[in-house]
Amino acid sequence: MAKRIVIGVPKEIKISENRVGLTEAGVKQLVLEGHTVLVQKDAGVGSRITNEDYERAGATMVDSAKDVYGKADMVMKVKEPLPDEYELLRENQILYTYLHLAAEAKLTKVLVDRRVKAIAYETIQADDGSLPLLTPMSEVAGRMASQIGAYYLQKDHGGKGILLGGVTGVNRGKVTIIGGGVVGINAAKMAVGLGAEVTILDVNHKRLEYLDDVFQGRLTTLHSNSANIEASVIGSDLVVGGVLVTGWKAPILVTKSMIERMQPGSVVVDVAVDQGGCIETCRPTSHQNPTYEVSGVIHYCVPNMPGVVARTSTYALTNATFKYGSMLAALGVEDAIAKDKALFAGLNVYNGAVSYEPVAKSLGLEFKPYRV
Fold this sequence. Notes:
The protein has 372 residues and is of the alpha/beta class. The protein folds into two domains: 6-124 and 310-363, Rossmann fold (3-Layer(aba) Sandwich), CATH 3.40.50; 138-308, NAD(P)-binding Rossmann-like Domain (Rossmann fold, 3-Layer(aba) Sandwich), CATH 3.40.50. It contains 13 helices and 15 strands.
């Protein structure tokens, strides 16, 4: 029998994070399914969803995050809880959001100590290996990466003064994309569309064949190894890091010495920063202070890139997350993950332990698998 629970949607507090965990359409559907939905006032404003929109959909508006966490059986968010929210988490509360715990030892300890049932969007994995809840944000971040790179290559933004597409009689800008997954292909679409000379590297030969076929010779595909990465990076105006190993900390593929040999005014955009980054000189920044320089190379390493195109991102994200959110609400964690293998892969912390092996190994913690 379907459960009826209280679902809470807090306002995101990460810097310049304007997305929200549930749209007004999602609220309406959950209310129709018999649940109570609490939404913190102004949670949707950054995505142009008003308090009145939520109220018309049947939500109960509350004043503070404390009200949301204090009453909700399940919390639906976008980004991981920050330290100000740690004390609000409750035992057996379902937390359904992006977590990226392999790079978040402190948060992992909090979730374990407070015995939260934590479901991570980014590790929910379908039978074909795809990551349906990560895909829409990877599409957004990949497209943004080339757009942002082109912006910072302008001289007035500190770059070397390169127009990626060049013009008649002048060389085009060179773009290297490391990783041919969802981020990589979307970064490539934008860079190719801008007219750049694009190289994309991946370890999967079938993926490279696919990219060759899709782009019909408009970019160069290379097997991803240290020699090819080094040669491509050093000669590039823009490098995009788009490497993902599901649930694990990202491997370092671009070394500091490679960065030091790039021309001053070049740009790197590390989309993998929320999993630790695949560029050695990468460290997380924010939308308020998005860049820094190492050896004259501009680094853009914002973990929540889609947060500044919030209207697009919120609707794209919640289109993907709602299905599993509805299941968790109706069935509870235990019955929902027993019913759906993809959702089972999303369970990262349960009953005071790390239940997702890549996170446990990345952080050197005990792994206790959940037994269905």
